[in-house]
Amino acid sequence: MTNYHISRQVASRPFVVVPYTPDSQGFLEADIPSDGPCRSVNDTPCKIFVQGNRWRKTGPMMALTVVGCQTHGCYFTLYPEGYGPFMRQRIAPVDYVGEIIDADADADADADADADADAEKRHAFRGTFFQAAIDIASGITWEKWDNAHGSSLTQRRHITRACRLFAPSLGITEKEQIALAECLRIPTLKLKDLMSHFYNQTHFRSLGRLLVETLSQLPLARWIGRAIARLFHLAGYWGPPFFWDSRAKRLVQDFPTTL
Ligand SMILES: [Zn+2]
What we know:
By secondary structure, the protein is of the alpha/beta class. The protein is built from seven helices and eight strands; from the N terminus they run ββββββαααααααββ. A six-stranded mixed sheet has the order 4-5-6-1-7-8, with helices on one face. Strand 7 (241-245) and strand 8 (250-252) form a beta hairpin. The longest helix is centred in the middle third of the chain and has 15 residues, at 152-166. It is globular and about 50 Å long. Mean pLDDT is 82; it is low at 1-7. Bound molecules: zinc ion (ZN). Residues 36, 38-39, 46, 69, 71-72 line the site of zinc ion.
């Protein structure tokens, strides 16, 4: 049984998501924003400088750029599209600039080798943070000990977290429900219906199936990574995300009107 109906954590540190694109040598490079979340403090223009790179042992398997703001005296890490703080896996099927990754292309290749490729295997969110739920939905429990994904404990933790994204707590307010529905681009009533199913399920496999079904109802558009980043914030896991709009050259919190 799960215990995801627990009181919400509160993460408040804002973070910044930017596109990472290959430089002339093929190394992924962050698009440096001209403003940080600190700008909202007093609307004094930021003076951003690159502080350096932060190497990580786990995904995304690349150095993340850390920048500082001279005006406001703060530092922040730039995460690529589809990632956020402490996240080893993508949260959505998007690449480092936010474009949808075509899961069907790989699935078609697999289908020749495995004619039994089922709906879960072809799921757009395959290989993302939601792999734990996709696996359990098709009866796959991760090994007890750590492997490429993590242990069975990790699988349960991911499922518990994923459930809280779609049903943050028993105490979710009407306003938050509307915000969630807006993030997901689904009607509020439909969201309420989905949430009620989460509250009625207690077993991991049932929850996994429900998550797979919920994910398959999300519109696969290039803003989906940003929407899920917002869900992590609404569920209390992350502080508020800010997104760098490379074309308009401004930092935004809203979407997809700016994409
Ligand atoms: Zn600043």
